[in-house]
Amino acid sequence: TAAALARRHTPKEPSQAASAPPPTMNLDSLKVNTVLKGTFEDVCARTKKALVENGFGVLTEIDIQAKMKEKLGIDRRPYLIFGACDPKLANQALGVSPYIGLLMPCNVCVFEQEGGDIEVAIFNPGVMAELAGDDSLQPVADAANAKVQKVIAALNSQ
Q1: Sign, Cα dihedral of 27, 79, 100, 33
Q2: Residues 6 or more apart in contact with residue 130 via CB below 8 angstroms
Q3: Structure pTM?
Q4: Which of 19, 53, 84, 157 is most buried, with most CB under 10 Å away?
Q5: Backbone angles phi and psi of 76, in degrees to 5
Q6: pLDDT tens for residues 27-48?
Q7: Is residue 51 within 8 Å of 58, Cβ to Cβ?
Q8: Residues facing residue 107 across a β-bridge
Q9: H or E stretch including 151?
Q10: Which residues of 114-146 are buried (b: 16+ CB within 10 A; e: fewer)?
Q11: C-alpha distances in angstroms, 23 versus 10, 31, 42, 74, 130?
């Protein structure tokens, strides 16, 4: 299973990191998403509000469209990444393993699709225990996943 594979390949010493192949996962399993109508700016504001109302702090905000223009001189459709975190759940997860910080903060991507609709894709914290190869993280993963589902439901009800 993926959990067994992750456990077997979790580096214990820095020298092991380069030789261990990562577990195979499908990107679709790593996200919880919805597609919304409205302007990009409106959906970003609604997303940030839904995150905060469901106990997430928004720690970072990265404007990918602006960074790509600045660094590479290319034009992209609007794309923003929020770094969101529930401090209580983060503390519980870090108590199990300091390496869980590699999955923090929870990325929330808001981007304009080709047809003009706006997609909100949130990292699926329900896969945290499987990625870490540690079943003791499952209660935290489940609690975080329930909160993410509430964010998606709030966005869909507006």
Answers
A1: negative
A2: 2, 3, 6, 23, 25
A3: 0.82
A4: 84
A5: -130, 160
A6: 888 999 999 999 999 999 999 9
A7: yes
A8: 83
A9: helix 138-157
A10: eeeebbbbbbbbbbbbbbbbbeebbebbebbbe
A11: 10, 17, 37, 33, 10
How many CA atoms are closer than 13 Å to the CA of 94, on its beta-carbon side?
11
**Sheet containing 79-85: order of strands:** 31-36, 118-123, 106-112, 79-85, 57-63
Residue, of 24 and 21, whose pLDDT is higher: 24
Helices 87-96 and 138-157 cross at an angle (nearest 10°) of 150
Q: Which two tokens stand for residue 133?
A: 């190869």
User: What's the rounded Cα separation, in Å, for the pair 115 and 119?
Assistant: 11
